[in-house]
Amino acid sequence: MKTPVYSLLPLLLSLSHLVTSVTIDCQNIRVDGKKFDLSKLAGRHSVTVHDTSRPPAEYNTTWTINLCAPLKKLEGIRDQDQCPGGTRVCGVVQSWNPADDPDKKHVQVENVIPIAGNFESSTGAGLDPKVTRLKTQDSNSDGLQIELNGGNYNKMKQKAVVQLTCDKDRSGNEEKRKRDDQDPDQDKDKDKDKEEQPSTSSLTFVSYGPVEGKDKIEVLRLDWRTKYACEDYADSDEARRSGWGFFTWFILLAFLGIAAYLIFGSWLNYNRYGARGWDLLPHGDTIRDIPYLFKDWSRKVIDTVSGGGSRGGYSAV
């Protein structure tokens, strides 16, 4: 008997949902046999571009990205002034008139541009990430290129191309240093012993605009300098120190398992039998005998090592 076509529709819809739900696992990115861990770059990162080319107004475009998870809504800001849920890369254009508003007390949000994200529930578009090594494009470069899709603005598809360039002196989380204009010498001695941070942000804006081709698409290009994009970072001593080994996890899980067993067993003995003290613990007699068992075992080991075992357990008279 042939299966009706309409009975296959739910299956097809579920498959299409899985296809569009493809996301990026920052902790375990594998490209051409190389492993990268970008989980330390998780969170909200922004770069702002100032535009004075359209007087009398001035414009600030803030590009915000979270590689590892959707951007969270900001409290105190209207929903229409933020990108929708599921956005990974967002642009917000703000304007003000410096002649009438030099203190920026009446800044207006002009445009909200969802560049990339998972928008299955609204437009049906997904993130569809594409990760490539920079060495496949330029042999002199070390790092990754990540393409993120899904956005739509003014009836044009949007895409973000993030180039993560290897920089062993940067974590990638550095923001542009803010200098204190009122008291530049404040806390100078306090910060003297601290390692000086770079004066520029690790995340920088490259370009945004339409690209030539059959499809109408606008591309945002960002450059991100970070040591986590270096191909040899996963094998470095720093990476090994930052990760937990197998035995560390094993000991932790074993400890938690034993603790849970003792707590649950004690609770059970208390509620069932009204036990108190050592009787609360499951196998309390065995636990109390552990010091004596260990003492006997140690004595046998010492006797064996010292050669006492050759007499069959009898002592010389």
Automatic annotation (TrEMBL):
<dbReference type="GO" id="GO:0034045">
    <property type="term" value="C:phagophore assembly site membrane"/>
</dbReference>
<keyword id="KW-0072">Autophagy</keyword>
<keyword id="KW-1015">Disulfide bond</keyword>
<dbReference type="InterPro" id="IPR009011">
    <property type="entry name" value="Man6P_isomerase_rcpt-bd_dom_sf"/>
</dbReference>
<dbReference type="GO" id="GO:0015031">
    <property type="term" value="P:protein transport"/>
</dbReference>
<keyword id="KW-1133">Transmembrane helix</keyword>
<feature type="transmembrane region" description="Helical">
    <location>
        <begin position="244"/>
        <end position="264"/>
    </location>
</feature>
<keyword id="KW-0812">Transmembrane</keyword>
<feature type="compositionally biased region" description="Basic and acidic residues">
    <location>
        <begin position="166"/>
        <end position="197"/>
    </location>
</feature>
<keyword id="KW-0333">Golgi apparatus</keyword>
<dbReference type="Pfam" id="PF09451">
    <property type="entry name" value="ATG27"/>
</dbReference>
<comment type="similarity">
    <text>Belongs to the ATG27 family.</text>
</comment>
<dbReference type="InterPro" id="IPR018939">
    <property type="entry name" value="Autophagy-rel_prot_27"/>
</dbReference>
<feature type="domain" description="MRH">
    <location>
        <begin position="24"/>
        <end position="232"/>
    </location>
</feature>
<dbReference type="GO" id="GO:0031966">
    <property type="term" value="C:mitochondrial membrane"/>
</dbReference>
<feature type="region of interest" description="Disordered">
    <location>
        <begin position="165"/>
        <end position="207"/>
    </location>
</feature>
<keyword id="KW-0472">Membrane</keyword>
<dbReference type="GO" id="GO:0006914">
    <property type="term" value="P:autophagy"/>
</dbReference>
<dbReference type="GO" id="GO:0030659">
    <property type="term" value="C:cytoplasmic vesicle membrane"/>
</dbReference>
<keyword id="KW-0732">Signal</keyword>
<keyword id="KW-0653">Protein transport</keyword>
<keyword id="KW-0813">Transport</keyword>
<dbReference type="InterPro" id="IPR044865">
    <property type="entry name" value="MRH_dom"/>
</dbReference>
<feature type="region of interest" description="Disordered">
    <location>
        <begin position="120"/>
        <end position="150"/>
    </location>
</feature>
<protein>
    <recommendedName>
        <fullName>Autophagy-related protein 27</fullName>
    </recommendedName>
</protein>
<feature type="signal peptide">
    <location>
        <begin position="1"/>
        <end position="21"/>
    </location>
</feature>
<keyword id="KW-0496">Mitochondrion</keyword>
<keyword id="KW-0968">Cytoplasmic vesicle</keyword>
<dbReference type="GO" id="GO:0000139">
    <property type="term" value="C:Golgi membrane"/>
</dbReference>
